[in-house]
Known about the structure:
A: 300 residues, alpha/beta, Rossmann fold, 10 strands, B: alpha+beta, Elongation Factor Tu (Ef-tu), domain 3
Amino acid sequence: xxxxxxxxxxxxxxxxxxxxxxxxxxxxxxxxxxxxxxxxxxxxxxxxxxxxxxxxxxxxxxxxxxxxxxxxxxxxxxxxxxxxxxxxxxxxxxxxxxxxxxxxxxxxxxxxxxxxxxxxxxxxxxxxxxxxxxxxxxxxxxxxxxxxxxxxxxxxxxxxxxxxxxxxxxxxxxxxxxxxxxxxxxxxxxxxxxxxxxxxxxxxxxxxxxxxxxxxxxxxxxxxxxxxxxxxxxxxxxxxxxxxxxxxxxxxxxxxxxxxxxxxxxxxxxxxxxxxxxxxxxxxxxxxxxxxxxxxxxxx
Amino acid sequence: xxxxxxxxxxxxxxxxxxxxxxxxxxxxxxxxxxxxxxxxxxxxxxxxxxxxxxxxxxxxxxxxxxxxxxxxxxxxxxxxxxxxxxxxxxxxxxxxxxxxxxxxxxxxxxxxxxxxxxxxxxxxxxxxxxxxxxxxxxxxxxxxxxxxxxxxxxxxxxxxxxxxxxxxxxxxxxxxxxxxxxxxxxxxxxxxxxxxxxxxxxxxxxxxxxxxxxxxxxxxxxxxxxxxxxxxxxxxxxxxxxxxxxxxxxxxxxxxxxxxxxxxxxxxxxxxxxxxxxxxxxxxxxxxxxxxxxxxxxxxxxxxxxxxxxxxxxxxxxxxxxxxxxxxxxxxxxxxxxxxxxxxxxxxxxxxxxxxxxxxxxxxxxxxxxxxxxxxxxxxxxxxxxxxxxxxxxxxxxxxxxxxxxxxxxxxxxxxxxxxxxxxxxxxxxxxxxxxxxxxx
Lengths: 300, 441
């Protein structure tokens, strides 16, 4: 007897494919934000499932802060080539040179400067919709965000004035200059993402797996030792066997000591984990409302 | 070969929403479910403790887990629908936490529209109040198949069985008038955790499951509609420059099945074009399949060359839907600018957006009883009403009570593009007759 039953990953998958196709159906010039991180790797597979055998009807876009892990950029470029997709990269460096982004005195982090870089890219290509891999389980402000997240002509998110989202009916209508951010993975958790990577046998960048790295103890975390913010004489530096759980910039991504060498190991590690994924991101720990403030300004 | 993992994978997803009035303890209940099912992480607990020092006089407030935005923490209210996730080895759960204050109707409709189950919280001291009736009625209106009445704060009434039975009797008075078939009553205390995840020693008179036990075991497999195939076409799949010659003439209709089952070789009717064809292939990325069912996403290749576009619907020949431009529906109004009869809106139904005119407001519904009252001149935010609509192009639809996906729509205000209403269609007066000669090409 046939059982008409979908398991949790199949339910999440069909929901995400539906959203991808709504984007293709409702928007003139959509783009998919692809960083090479685990969430956007799932997005790419979902795009293949939504649009094959045709070509992907949207280009890939990445904002390169200049502080990316080199392994990540190598993977990003290779994966885009494999899929025959168009990859657009815009850099914070270039945005600074053109006066679109302005670092504050002594500001090393590129976190804030990603925002004007992204907004300038949206304007340059007149994108009316960007698909992103954000998930609601990542952070409290994200937990309140819609699948179709409306941004005004300044790229701002207004959490108190979001369009109600009812059933699977998404309102994608925009006036000129306005923009939509769409998050097909809203209902996915970190565990779902890894289980999907396992089921689909997706390749992920090597830094997610255990490797040896020189790390510096800073702000209660092990950060990769790097040239941008070199270790100070009083900081502890050690060679450790680590992996990254979430990928941000090289100066703010905490490394966790881990022997996990396979996707199965990672899933076992997450099942036993007692700290959330973004607990290793210094950018979110800045204040309790850090993400809320960045999103209001146009961040993802 | 990769070693087989021993970590159990959840078998499906239960979506539920929680509702209650301001101090019924909703957020505390969710916090308790997360905390006791070990779904909270150390950094979340630390963040809770940090905020407790600032606002809570040192006491950890489980409600802070869901009240995420700064404005909410400052005002001590929940602004919007917040989503929370947790999993047990048996199921993955998606919680929509819908606030109980003034905007409750709009927010609850939003949070509950995709729910399998609603948890209505009742304060054991106050019993059934107007809000409990409203929340239950909205759950019924939205055809949420399962309801849990969580009689909370039982610790404050001395774990009295008599009080629990009294509240249950109050509920059972108005339940028969509603459309909810499966109702469960659970005595609990969110604050102390009794009967939330672990069985309470204080309620020897209660032999039912804990709240989590019930959420893990309630049968939801039959909640999807498997009668009457419906595929709203989302996107037409036509490869531009196929490398594979076999794909040169490929034309597929992509969409998420909104009802029923489809098989290769089956006859289907394309509406509103009214053309009959046969399913040649069900294309998926993972290879062709012999059959597919609701809510899977597929790409259908037909035997005949029919020109369909986004907004068309493919249907099976059994259980036909209605197709009409004159419609009757129940609306939940969601916008500060009231609905006025005679005004034009955009109506989005499945993958189809059409112009529409609200011709009459037939009645305003009493939120607690769902009974119609006088015909008003308008509907204000949070009002429920029954209306007549006329659309510029025909909708292919089912009554909301038989299919939540093909029986629902939203109204969009032209110009501002605001989503102003959620609509539930009444059953069609007559259905499409596929056997009629009109439909043969």
